[in-house]
Amino acid sequence: MPIDTHTKILATIGPSTASKNMIEKLIKSGVDAFRFNFSHGTHAEHAERFKIVRELAAKYNRHLTIVADLQGPKLRVGTFKTDKVLLKKGQKFTLDMIDENGDETRVQLPHKEIFAVLKAGDKLLLNDGNIELEVLKNKNQVAETVVKVGGYLSAHKGVNLPNVKLPISAITEKDKKDLEFALNLGVDWVCLSFVQSVQDVRTARKLIGNRAWIISKLEKPSAVDELDLVVRESDGIMVARGDLGVECPIQTVPVLQKRIVKTCRKYGRPVIVATQMLESMIVNPTPTRAEVSDVATAVFDGADAVMLSAETAAGAYPAEAVAMMHQIITQVEDDASYYARVQIDKDLSDCDDMADAITYAASEMSNVLPNIAATVTYSATGFTTVSMARERPSLPIVAITLTPEVAQRLGLVWGVRAFVNPEVFTDITKLQETALKIAKEAKIGKKGEYLVITAGYPIGVPRMTNLIYTVQL
Questions:
Q1: Is the distance from CB of 73 to CB of 151 less than 8 angstroms?
Q2: Which residues contact 178 (CB under 8 A, 6 or more apart)?
Q3: Which of 76, 165, 341, 346 is catalytic?
Q4: pLDDT value of residue 3
Q5: Within its chain, how far is the Cα of 471 from the centroid?
């Protein structure tokens, strides 16, 4: 079973992979974490899938991560009198709040928040950006527009407003219900969709507390404008290239991806690159060469994880897609230039406390000494381990944690293999003994090699990493 790569694979469970047999196939093919998309499926379906993942994790002695992805404020047009209408370039088209079926001249846009900020000259993108409207005037919740790019439009297609900050929360009433359900299940991470500002993350933090870690999905230009603030306030970041490529000029997405990954590396936040990574494998057994290169680029950039969406949720070849992604990751990480490249973007400007200094020193030891087998982090909260992963050491990161909950959260973090041992957190004299025992049982290293251990004293106190030493296998 593939667990030998540093870069993790996050796969979405959906109709194609909801059975125990298929989820097990995905695990065997290389999945480290599973995404539950709350835009689809019932609570009962998610609960059943959650149970299956946890059962299989126990079977294979793995700390598999479960991510709940909230739908967020989806903006959609209403319905039409026919299946679809054709909007022609240059024609006038009206958006309003009238709850009636639309036609070629108008349609309902049931979002008063949009009308509150819409002004002449603003651009609206419909149907994944395939249709473009320009606002001529907006008054009394009626917006008159002109079609700049035409096309067919059908019921409930999405609406994007580039560079327009809407007075709505990233967490809707539906999201609040889904969130409480997901937290009660025991998910490890929660994804926030359509984050517009750092305030959205702070609002979520008040609701979630320490019951899960927070991933902010970067899809809106306004969130990118506050990139440093959003990254620092979040526990992790997802480069959600689908809506990001609609909201921003599509040619800017590769540049934004690299900027976001670099910023996450700077602040020590796990980062996931998502959307259309192996899109053609939804219907084909092999990907395009461009898709293979796309995945490889994300790995070379130092992403913590790469994600599969429809490829595993609804595709015809879900296990094959995971296996292909694992093969690409392996090929890149086996390249002689890989570790040098992922360490190019090290930014020590935010290394402002003892924990950062200790993990940096431990990473450097593992990189320069020839007989180091692994770095070992003792971390009650996961903070020290994430800090170590930020450095991208060339050897495995063994995380010894207090609880399964922390170990499961670390399943999305670059290079980490997590183990649970609560006993050692009450007796510092067992740090060496426990590290040696776990390394030997996990077949990490060989006799005569060393482990570089980081920990904190008093042991178990959050953000108290202040010890570094070596022990010989």
A1: no
A2: 38, 43, 68, 70, 71
A3: 76
A4: 64
A5: 35
Which one from 8, 217, 220, 390 is the annotated catalytic residue?
A: 217
Mean pLDDT to the nearest integer, 334-352: 74
Q: What is the pTM of this model?
A: 0.92
Among this protein's residues, is 275 annotated catalytic? yes
**Catalytic annotation on 49?**
no
Grouping H, G, I as helix, E, B as strand and the rest as coil, residue 454 is: strand
| Residue found under tokens 């230039």 | 337
Distance CA 53, CA 330 (A): 24
Is 322 within 8 Å of 9 (Cβ atoms)? yes
Question: CA dist 4 to 304, 339, 351, Å?
Answer: 14, 15, 29
The pLDDT assigned to 1 comes to 54
What the block records as the tokens of 9 is 């694979």
**Catalytic hit among 12, 17, 145, 275:** 275
Q: Give the separation between CA 219 and CA 148, rounded to whole angstroms.
A: 23
- The residue from 8, 35, 269, 409 that is catalytic is 35
Largest interatomic CA distance in the chain: 77
Distance CA 55, CA 338 (A): 35
Model pLDDT, residue 349: 53
How confident is the model over 270-292, as pLDDT tens digits? Answer: 999 999 999 999 999 999 999 99
Rounded percentage of the chain residues whose pLDDT exceeds 70:
96
The runs of H, that is alpha helices, within 93-216 are 112-117, 173-185, 198-208
Lowest mean pLDDT among 143-157, 308-322, 453-467: 453-467
Active site residue 35: yes
Each residue's pLDDT tens digit, 355-389: 778 877 887 777 777 888 899 999 889 988 998 89
Domains of the chain are 8-72+170-335 (3.20.20.60), 84-160 (2.40.33.10), 351-472 (3.40.1380.20)
CB under 8 Å to 5, separation ≥6 — which residues? 30, 326, 329, 330, 333
